[in-house]
């Protein structure tokens, strides 16, 4: 049994209570207007949750990354890393929404839904049972469908929500079907027992086990934005309110990887088949198609959406080589943490640009470096970090990912090609990121500086400190990631 | 024999096929929502059938959870469809073309 003070239960209690109380307060006060009041409550709840996760880490109450547990949840460091990343993204979204929500109705419901979605995101990473994983997955998805379509009068917000809903509902249907096959084959829904059951499976049933793993890859792949399943993603990010695009790109997408690492990677190890090649091909396709499509975009939001598809490809490199190199999963987790901050920051910067200037078209960004200096500087830093330019934090995680691919080259002949494609793609992405920077700083007439929103500047400064600080001095973050990475090897049996 | 596991599994696979066909061919949003519901119910049938032939009730429990979640999902989906209908007077997915690039 989990103790009552274990991290997932405490986070669930804090965020759940506050998430339910916020709408009740708004009904009791019989008013809709006071947007920043609800934002402050949500912010306080998230800060307390982050503090609790950190406190548990500092007091060594957290188990090292456990692969399996007999319970439905496990309080381990792997979940803790995702909890910190997801709570940070939720904090960014909450703070970044304050200015945006001034122009829109029912802020109480909005912040409450962000908190509820955050509970789902955190719980997925802690789940060690397929039932818990599925329920948490839906708890994450359902509020985000509503948040994407939150601006009811705006046709593109609604269209984005409908597309997101259709693919999201399909992905959860596929996941339930995969769970039902896994349950039928092994008689259990506990991930450890399922994988143990797979390793002793009658060979005639192996194709069914492969079908269930394939369904998990497809189901989680929709949320991760892997390439055959990515069509909804740019439309949804473009139509959604920009702070919610940050929540989707930096939050729910990473949760797909948490679920994938808990289920797919371990399943691959035990099924003892060369699934790594399939994941490697997916990784190359995802990053190449994402980057090539990003070059052709005219809207900044869409370009970042395609770049987040490309980053799903980079993270997948680590999953593909995980059984052959201990650096693989470590690099993936490191990049997930970095990408959560970089992408969250970039989309919140867009939220700032949209609320003050109401443009996302790249041609209209000329001279942004003089009109909104802090936002523009932060956007450029996040873009360079996404490309992996050295003194920034994104460089180290990419180095670790590509290093793991080279490291696995001794047992997999094709693994170094993953690193080559990764480096080529990073160079390609630097081209269009630098083009944005040029547009913002070296083009357009000198225009007057406009007033930037203070909450968004706070987010920008925090994430700039994170990216530059951990870029110059990465050791603490690396040690933390190493502690949070589960050990996977080919001779592993639960 | 009506009580064999294979009968339930075959029905479930047939339902999965119907769901995928509906998603691929239909363009009305409510029809596509129903196709997804059929896939979820195919999975539920699988779970309950497997649970019937196993010594414990884990499958039935998961099926109950999944039914409740599917109901919540339909509620969200239909509310989005109502908003879309008020805007476009139509729920054909081909008409939603304002976002592209």
SSE blueprint:
The complex is a heterodimer of chains A (494) and B (101).
Chain A: H1 7-29, H2 35-58, H3 77-100, H4 107-126, H5 130-148, H6 155-186, H7 191-199, H8 206-224, H9 232-239, H10 242-271, H11 275-295, H12 300-320, H13 326-357, H14 368-371, H15 373-387, H16 393-407, H17 415-442, H18 454-472, H19 475-484
Chain B: H1 5-25, H2 29-52, H3 58-88
How would you describe this structure to a colleague?
The complex is a heterodimer of chains A (494) and B (101). The mean pLDDT of chain A is 87. Chain A has a domain of 220 residues. In chain A, 76% of the residues lie in helices and 0% in strands. In chain A, helix 6 packs across helix 7, helix 6 runs antiparallel to helix 8 and helix 6 packs across helix 9. Chain A is mainly alpha-helical and 494 residues long. Chain A is globular and about 70 Å long. With 101 residues, chain B is mostly helical. Chain B has one domain: Orthogonal Bundle (Helix Hairpins). Chain B is 75% helix and 0% strand. The mean pLDDT of chain B is 87. At the A-B interface, helix 5, helix 6 and helix 9 of A face helix 1, helix 2 and helix 3 of B.
Write a brief caption for the model.
By secondary structure, chain A is an all-alpha fold. Helices cover 76% and strands 0% of the residues of chain A.
């Amino acid at each position: 049994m989990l103790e009552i003070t274990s991290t997932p239960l405490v986070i669930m209690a804090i965020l759940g209570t506050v998430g339910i109380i916020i709408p009740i307060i708004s009904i009791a006060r019989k008013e809709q207007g006071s947007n920043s009041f609800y934002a402050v409550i949500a912010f306080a709840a998230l800060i307390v949750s982050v503090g609790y996760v950190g406190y548990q880490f500092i007091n060594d109450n957290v188990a090292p990354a456990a692969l399996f547990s007999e319970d439905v949840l496990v309080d381990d460091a792997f979940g803790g890393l995702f909890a910190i990343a997801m709570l940070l993204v939720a904090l960014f979204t909450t703070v970044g929404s304050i200015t945006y929500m001034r122009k829109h109705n029912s802020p109480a419901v909005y912040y409450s839904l962000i908190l509820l979605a955050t509970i789902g995101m955190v719980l997925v990473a802690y789940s060690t049972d397929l039932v818990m994983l599925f329920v948490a997955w839906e708890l994450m998805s359902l509020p985000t469908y509503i948040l994407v379509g939150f601006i009811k009068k705006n046709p593109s917000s609604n269209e984005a929500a409908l597309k997101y809903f259709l693919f999201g509902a399909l992905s959860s249907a596929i996941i339930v079907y995969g769970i039902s096959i896994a349950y039928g084959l092994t008689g259990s829904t506990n991930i450890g027992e399922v994988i143990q059951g797979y390793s002793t499976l009658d060979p005639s049933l192996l194709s069914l086990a492969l079908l269930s793993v394939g369904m998990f890859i497809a189901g989680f792949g929709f949320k991760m934005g892997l390439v055959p399943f990515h069509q909804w993603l740019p439309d949804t990010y473009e139509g959604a309110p920009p702070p919610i695009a940050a929540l989707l790109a930096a939050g729910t997408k990473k949760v797909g990887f948490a679920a994938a690492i808990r289920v797919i990677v371990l399943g691959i190890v035990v099924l003892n088949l060369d699934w790594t090649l399939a994941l490697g091909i997916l990784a190359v396709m995802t990053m190449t198609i994402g980057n090539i499509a990003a070059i052709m975009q005219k809207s900044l939001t869409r370009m970042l959406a395609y770049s987040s598809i490309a980053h799903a490809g980079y993270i997948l490199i680590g999953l593909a080589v995980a059984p052959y190199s201990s650096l693989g999963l470590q690099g993936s987790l490191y990049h997930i943490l970095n990408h959560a901050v970089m992408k969250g920051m970039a989309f919140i910067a867009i939220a700032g640009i949209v609320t003050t200037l109401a443009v996302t078209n790249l041609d209209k960004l000329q001279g942004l470096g003089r009109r909104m200096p802090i936002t523009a500087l932060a956007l450029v830093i996040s873009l360079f970090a996404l490309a992996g330019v050295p003194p920034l934090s994104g460089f180290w995680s990419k180095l670790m990912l590509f290093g793991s691919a080279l490291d696995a080259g001794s047992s997999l002949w094709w693994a170094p090609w993953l690193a080559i494609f990764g480096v080529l793609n990073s160079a390609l992405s630097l081209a269009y990121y630098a083009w944005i920077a040029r547009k913002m700083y070296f083009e357009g007439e000198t225009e007057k500086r406009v007033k930037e929103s203070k909450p968004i500047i706070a987010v920008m400064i925090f994430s700039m400190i994170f990216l530059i600080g951990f870029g110059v001095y990465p050791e603490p973050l690396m040690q933390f990631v190493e502690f949070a990475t589960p050990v996977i090897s080919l001779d592993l049996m639960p | 024999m009506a009580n064999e596991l294979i009968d339930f599994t075959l029905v479930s696979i047939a339902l999965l096929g119907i769901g995928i066909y509906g998603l691929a061919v239909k363009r009305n949003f409510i029809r596509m929502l129903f196709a997804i519901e059929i896939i979820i119910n195919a999975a539920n049938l699988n779970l309950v059938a497997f649970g019937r032939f196993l010594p414990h009730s884990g499958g039935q429990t998961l099926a109950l959870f999944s039914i409740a979640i599917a109901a919540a999902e339909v509620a969200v989906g239909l509310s989005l469809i109502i908003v879309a209908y008020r805007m476009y007077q139509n729920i054909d997915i081909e008409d939603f073309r304002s976002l592209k690039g």
